Amino acid sequence: MLYLPEGVERILVPQEEIDEIVTNIAEQVDRDYAGKRLVLLCILKGSVVFMGDLMKKLRTPAEIDFMKVSSYGSGTESSGTVKIVLDVLRKDLSECDFLIVEDIVDSGKTLKYLVEYLKLKGAKTVKTCTLLDKPERRQVEFVPDYCGKQIPDEFVVGYGLDYDERFRALPYVGVLSRSVYEK
Length: 183
Ligand code: IMP
Ligand code: MG
Prior knowledge:
Elements: E1 8-13, H1 15-32, E2 38-44, H2 48-57, E3 62-72, E4 78-86, E5 97-105, H3 109-120, E6 125-133, E7 146-150, E8 156-157, E9 173-176, H4 178-181
Parallel strand pairs: 2-3, 2-5, 5-6, 6-7
Antiparallel strand pairs: 1-9, 3-4, 8-9
The structure holds inosinic acid and magnesium ion.
C-alpha cells in the first residue's frame, strides 16, 4: 500500500508514470544534445529528485550545476519577484549548452527570468525542461522546451515539490488538500 500522509488528498502522477515521463524526456534530450556540452542546471530545491532521475537516464555526457532562486515566500502563492539566492559559479558559460531542470512551471516568471539571465551572462545556449506545467496559471509568455506533463491548476507536492518544506520525499506527485492552506 502506498503511504498517503495527512494533508495529501490523492495521487496525481504515480511513480510508474513519472518514470515513463523521465525516460521519454531523457530520450529527447539525448537526440537534441549529441555532440554538445550539456550542462544540467538544477533549480534548488524542488528539482533535485527529478534532476537525479533524469541524469541517470541520459546517455549524453552531462555536467551538473545548481542555482537557487526564491519567488515563493511561504504557502501556495508566488511573490512574483525572482531573486537569485545561489548563482552558477562557473566562468566558462560561453562554452556551455545549459538545460535548466525545473520541477514545475506556474506563472512562468522563474524560468523566463532565468533564461534571460543566463543568456545575458553569456551562455552559449539555454533551454528549459520541466517535469510539470500548469499552463492555466501563466502570467508571462513562456513555453518550456521539454515538458513532462501538463496538469490542472492544483497545488501539488512530492517528488521534490513542497508545501512549506513538507512532502518533498514522497515518491509520487500528489494533490495537497485545500484544508491545509485554506483556513
Ligand atoms: P513560477 O515562477 O510561478 O512559474 O513558479 C515556479 C516555482 O513555484 C516552482 O519552481 C515551484 O517551486 C513553485 N510552485 C509552483 N506551483 C507549485 C506547486 O503546485 N507545488 C509546489 N511548488 C510549486
Ligand atoms: Mg522550484
